[in-house]
Amino acid sequence: MTTGKATATTYGARAHARAQDGTRTEAMPVVPAADWPRPPREAGRLVWAETVAGGNYTHRVLARGTELRLTDLHGDACAHLLLYVADRPWERLNVADTVKVQWNAYLGAGLLLLSDQGRVLASLVADTSERHDALCGTSTLVRNTERYGDGAPQSGSPAGRELFKLAAAKNGLEPRDLPPSLSFFQGVEVREDGALDFTGSAGPGGSVTLRAEQDLTVLIANVPHPVDPRDDYVSTPLEVLAWHAEPTKAGDPLWDTSPEGRRAFLNTAGFLAARGLA
Asked: pTM here?
């Protein structure tokens, strides 16, 4: 019997759905996360474990101190990231300030992801890829339609912004709440004349680990980088793991990486203390 005939009635649809219980595909979340078969050696209790297919998205609210590891499993993932303070979504990732305040357009371990309030949203505590981008944002419906023939979320070539709209809606956010995003695992360098060179991926297995310095809403779209020169829509699975840890404290080397970073941590600590959160 074909699936169509099997699900033609409510009883058949229920039986078909229940028959899928316990089956797994490469790209799907693991619930509970503690059942993830390959937890990182240094991880505490896992609270998020998922493989995000190419051309798909995910989202989660994470507590302050949680560590989030993204891994490019096959070498062609591109994790476009947006961050919001969980109970104050108007405080969100500001890519321009992240670059400007730290005098650095190239993401890597030791750098901070900042809001426009001069506070730290997340810190980059480890990076084995070093192929990231803070300049180009993510892909759009218009651009993907021009390049691939379609950019709608249900198409074979969904645009990052369209997927972000879906993730945002599930967290009470609107399209106007979507600022420029960061991209991990597909790099871009700026030439002397201001033109951009796409440096691509570092290869399979590259990872980056972020530490949430406030309670955060995390949105991720795994789609090709907007300046990827390849004609085909190439996007492979992204592994997402998060576990309980501790926020960065005074005395941690990350706190004193730069005067600007120290000030951002002090701003964050003062704000949290005033709210009784630290």
From this structure: 0.92
